[in-house]
Protein 1
Amino acid sequence: MHELFATVIRWGSPNGITKQDSNVYRLWDITYYIAIPLGAIVIGLIIWCAVRYRERPGYERIPRQFQYHIPLEILYTAVPLALVIFLFVYVYQAEDRVDNVAPNPALVVRVDAFQWGWRFTYPNGYEVLGSVATEPNINSTDLPVLTLPAGETVQINLFSDDVNHSFYVPAFLFKRDAIQGINNSFDVNILPSAAGRRYIGECTQFCGVYHPFMRFWLQVMPKDKFGTWLAHHHGSQIVTAKG
Ligand SMILES: [Cu+2]
C-alpha cells in the first residue's frame, strides 16, 4: 500500500536501479509535470466554454463571431513551441548521458541474442547459455542468469546471431536492440542498493515463435564478491527452459 501511494505521488513511474536510468526517470517526471497543468488548462477551457456558451432561452443561438485576436494567436503559437524546444533539448541531453560509454569500464560482458535465447560471455571465457526447448512453460523460472556487480561501470556489448532482438531489463528503465552485424554497446552502473537482488530481463522485439519465452534473470552482486564469483566460474553453463 505504501509502495502504491509512493508510486502515485511520483506520477506513476518507478525508479530504476542504475545511475543511467535517473536521466530517463527525470524525463518522465518533467513530462508529467508539464502535461498535467496543460491538460487541466485545456479541459478547464472546454468545460468553461461548454457551460458559459450553452444554449439558453433568450440568447442568440450563435455567439458573436470575430477573427484575428493577435495576442491570443501569438500565445498559442509561442507556448507550444517553447515546450517542444524545451523537451527536445531535455530529451537530447538525457539520451546523451544514457548513451555515454566509459573508456575504461570495470567489466565488459558480451551478450548475444538468438532465436531463442541468450548467451552471456565474461572476460575470462565463462559463458552462460540459455536456450528455449520446444513448448516451454511460460511460467518456467529455469532461465539463464546474467550476474553483474553493483557499484561499478559494466559495459554490455550486445549482438544478435540472426534476427532483431531487444535486451530489456525493466528495472534499468532502458532497452537496446540487438541487430545482426552491429555491436550495440552501453554502460550500466547498478546502484549498490540493488546488490543481492534478482530482476527479470526479456527480449522485447518480436523475433519469432518462442519470443515470449526469451527471458533471463539479472542477478546483482556486491562489487567485492563479484571478482571471487567470476574466478570460480569457467567453461559453459547451459540452461534450457522446459515445459
Ligand atoms: Cu528475441
Protein 2
Amino acid sequence: MKKALVIGSGAGGAMAARMLSATFDVTVLEEGRSFRPLPISLDVLTKVRRTGLFVDPRMIQWVMPNMRIDQGADMVMVYGRGVGGTTTLATGNAVRADQGLRRLGIDLDEEFDALHRELPITTDHERFWSPITRRTFSVMTELGMDPTPMPKFLRTQQCARCGHCSIGCPTRAKWDARELLDGLRVVTGCRVTHLELGDGRARRVHARMGLRHVTFDADLIVVAAGGMGTPDILRRSGIPCQSSLFVDPVLCVAAPMPGVRQDRQLLMPFVSRREWYIISPYMDWLSFFFHYKWNHSRSDMVSLMVKLADVEQGDVQHRHMLKSLTPLDYERLRTGVWECRDILERMGAKQESVVMGILNAGHPGGMLPLSSADASTLHPSVLPDNVYVCDASLLPQSLGLPPMLTIMALAKRIAKVVQG
Ligand SMILES: Cc1cc2nc3c(=O)[nH]c(=O)nc-3n(C[C@H](O)[C@H](O)[C@H](O)COP(=O)(O)OP(=O)(O)OC[C@H]3O[C@@H](n4cnc5c(N)ncnc54)[C@H](O)[C@@H]3O)c2cc1C
Ligand code: SF4
C-alpha cells in the first residue's frame, strides 16, 4: 500500500487523512498534543481575574496549552495546536462559504451534501434558546436584520448549554475533527520544519520531536498545518506563498444587563449576515478575562460579535502574523459596531455603558489561494507533483464566515482528485 503523510490534524488535515485512508497507509504528523478543554472552572478563573493578574491574553496558554495566541500589531490571533487543530476551539458553526471557490469554477455541491449526511449538522437548537437569546433575536428581527438560526456541528441532546464551546466542549456534544481521526495513526509532538525536494517531487519530510530531528518518507504529502503553519513549511521548503493573508477579525460589543446569563448559552446561536460582516451573540471569554473594561459579572453581560471579511493582505513570518487592518477594514468594523450599539440600546443598555472587546481573529488563510487554472486539479502549480495543500491556505478570499465546512469540502475533493 502506498504511504501518505498528512501534516496537521485540523479541519483540512483530519478530513484528508480520513478520506485517504481508504487507499493509502496514512500517518498524521501533528505538532501539538491531545486536546484538553479548559481544566479550571470558570468560577476559579473569575476569582483570579478580580486580582487584576490577567494582563495579557497569551496567559491563557498557561492553563490551556492547546489554545495559542499570537500578538499582532493591532489584534491577536487565536488558533489551536493539538489533535483536532482549531476545530476543538470552534464555536461549532457549520456554514457553507464557497462563493469565492464557485467563482473560480469549483463546484463542491457533492462534497457539501456528503458532509451534511456524514456529520451531525443541525439547526435544531432553537427550542433550547434562553430568554436573552430570544430577546436579542426579536430585536434584530424588528430592526430588519433578518437573523437566522446558525447551523451547528452539534448533538443537541447532549448539549449542556454551558457556553464553553470556544474553550473546549466538556460533553463532546459539539463535533470536532478529532472524530475523523479515530483509528488513524497520529504522531503527536511532531513539528514539521520543511520538505526535502528534488526532481519536482518531495522526497522526505523533516521534523522535530523534542530535541530530536526526524525524517519521514512517503509517496504522497498533504500539508494541512493551517493558515499560519502551512505557509511557514512551504517557504522553508523553497515553495513561494503570497502575502495575501486574511484572518476574519472579530470585535465584540458588550453591555451590562443584570442576570441575563448569556454566558450559559450555546455560543453564536443565530446570525445576521450583513454586506461585509456578520453579527451574532457571542460571550467572548478572551475579552472577559483580559480586557479591563469587561469588569461585570459574567452572568450580567450581553455581548455581540462583529466578524468581518477583511482585505486579503498581510503575511506570516516564522508563524507570527504580520498584518494590520486597512482603513477600509476599520470603516466596515465601525459600521458593525454602530449596528451592535443600536441593538443593545433597544434591549435597554445605556450607550455610555457599552464596551468593546479585544480585537482578535481566528480564521487565518489565503496565502496559497486557488485560481481558476487550478479548478480541476486543486493543485497550485508551485507545488511539487506529490504534494497537496489541504487547509484554509487555499481559500481565494476572506469569508467573514466560519470556514470549517468549506475547508472540509475542499479536503474531500482533493482526496478524490488524488485517488483518481
Ligand atoms: C475561537 C474560535 C472559534 C471558531 N469557531 C468556528 C466555527 O464555529 N466554525 C468554523 O467553521 N470555524 C471556526 N473557527 C475557525 C476554524 O476552527 C478554522 O478556520 C479551521 O479549523 C482551520 O482549519 P485548518 O485545517 O486550516 O487548520 P487548523 O484546524 O488550525 O489545523 C492546523 C493543524 O496543524 C498543526 N500544525 C501547525 N504547524 C504544524 C507543523 N509545523 N507540524 C505539524 N503540525 C502543525 C496545528 O497544531 C493544527 O493542529 C474558529 C476559530 C477560533 C479560533
Ligand atoms: S454549550 Fe453545548 S456545545 Fe457548547 S460547550 Fe457547552 S455542551 Fe458543548
